[in-house]
Amino acid sequence: MEGTVGSSASAAAAPVNQWWQEFSKMFQYYLDKSTPHATYRWIGTLAIVSIYVLRVFYIQGFYIVSYGLGIYLLNLLIGFLSPLVDPELEPNADGPLLPTKGSDDLIESVLMDEIDDLLFEYDCRYSFTKAFCIAFVMTFFSVFDVPVFWPILLCYWIVLFVLTMRRQIAHMIKYKYIPFNIGKQKYTGKRSSASSSGSRAD
Question: Which residue ranges run through the membrane (predicted)?
Answer without folding.
Answer: 39-57, 64-85, 148-165
